[in-house]
Fold this protein.
Amino acid sequence: MSAANRIWQKKGWLIAGGFFAFGFALVPLYNIACEHVLGIKLEQGAVDADAAAAMVVDESRLVTVQFIANTKSKLPWVFNAEKVSMQVHPGELAEAWFDATNVSERDIVGNAVPSVAPNSASLYFNKTECFCFTEQLLKAGETKRMPVRFIVDPRLPKDISTLTLAYTFLENDIATKKLAESNQAAAPAS
């Protein structure tokens, strides 16, 4: 191989390595852009208990929280919020309940995907407990009541007086398939 070819080969490997490193850098860059530029909270876990306890209730202000419950069209569940909306003081722990019913003749595992509107308010909406943190199994015909406990951060900008918390339930195809396989394996032979 000539010296010129070796130089081009080294350049090619450096470029390929650079693209590979850039691919790994995209995830943290995306997270930074969403949270700090667009004001969208990506982390969906429970708020730290100490952080929740440290919030001071702002009794001079009320915020309306609206609830929307949806399912993907192929999921045979009926899913509803028990209340359409509620008013809360920022900083106080609040609780809302949702009901899901599996109207099919098979056991199904679902996952709820949450979203908060307006997007910038997601930074100030903190869940302490939520059915969206884990998979939900509903047996055929089963109904389940599921809570979400949350705190609206008192630092919510004053111009935001209404938040919308929406959930969309999706069938977890992989978990449902594993469940069906384990049910078949456990069934006694006839």
Q: What stands out?
A: Residues 33-40 have pLDDT under 50 and may be disordered.
